[in-house]
Amino acid sequence: MRILACVSTNFTEKRTFVLAVVCLLVQGLASAATLKINGSTTVNLPVAEAAEILRAERSMVIQVDTQGGSAGGIAALGDGLVQIGMSSKHLDETARTKYPNVDFQETRIGEDAVAMVVSKDVWDGGVRALSKDQVRGIYEGRITNWQSLGGPDRRIVFFNKEPGRGTWEVFAHWAYGDSKKAPPVSLLEVGGNEEARNKVASTRGALSQLSASWADGQTVFALALKNGEGQPIAPTAENIASHRYPMSRPLFLLTNGPPADEAKVFINFILGERGQGLVRKHGYLSLDQLKAW
Asked: 186 forms bridges with which residues in the sheet?
């Protein structure tokens, strides 16, 4: 019936057949809506792999991007440019105020942590843990040499995650109680996790904020953070799940209202056994692991 609606009875049989085929192709393209996803480079790892699976098994058309990190994903969803935003931080009231007509819904898919990571020379030089006051001193430029922290006589090179990214927001909230209270600084900036890890690995005396799962223990090393009693708390799975480690963070997929259509199919896959396996594969804690602790 849909074919007949596209065809004029004045065409010859051959031309009618050709036109019918064209109509089917156009209708097929229109029905294959592109599912657009953007945001956090941390959340991107399991999401990108899930997208590959669903493209192959269900012929879904999926576009995944990490432009702007978590803040970029929230903005893209708010502006109606994507159906799913990826975020490695809780949504704050700033976004809800900026987009009052958007019904932001958070679907938690796993748990991660932000680590303060250092280059191999710093780690080998004896720096294995930092206190909040020491991190703030480095961030604000009051501590400039690792020697004053028990490490090598080497200048500290701080690669700061771009403000607005989930990693930076979690760091700033831990260090200052509120990301808005973090002072303006003139530090070298890095974007996604891969860039941050590469910069730290290739720079002597380097330090940065990074997703804990990206600290490979060979080229970049995750420091423990000292609690109020001076006890070092490392970003282990148990400490992250129990929130003893202070920079634990949830990983979210965001939608405008409850997930629907292709977005619902995608999110259901991520929440399922295979999708949660991808979360674990990339070094994050899956939802069942969180319940186990």
From this structure: none
**Position 274 in a domain:** no
Residue 146 per-residue DSSP state: G
Q: Which domain holds residue 179?
A: 113-242
**pTM of structure:** 0.79
What are the tens digits of pLDDT across the range 150-176?
A: 999 999 999 999 887 889 999 999 999
Cα(106)–Cα(85) distance, integer angstroms: 9
The one-letter amino acid at 15: R
Strands 104-119 and 220-222: antiparallel
- Point out which residues pair with 37 in neighbouring strands: 64, 84
Q: Which of 217, 202, 190 is nearest to 283 (CA)?
A: 217
Query: Domain tally for the chain?
Result: 2
Q: What is the CATH number of the domain that holds 182?
A: 3.40.190.10
138 plus 235 within the same structural domain: yes
Per-residue pLDDT tens digits for 52-86:
999 999 999 999 999 888 999 999 999 999 999 99
Residue 140 Ramachandran class (φ > 0 left, ψ -120 to 50 alpha, else beta):
alpha
Residue 122 lies in a domain: yes
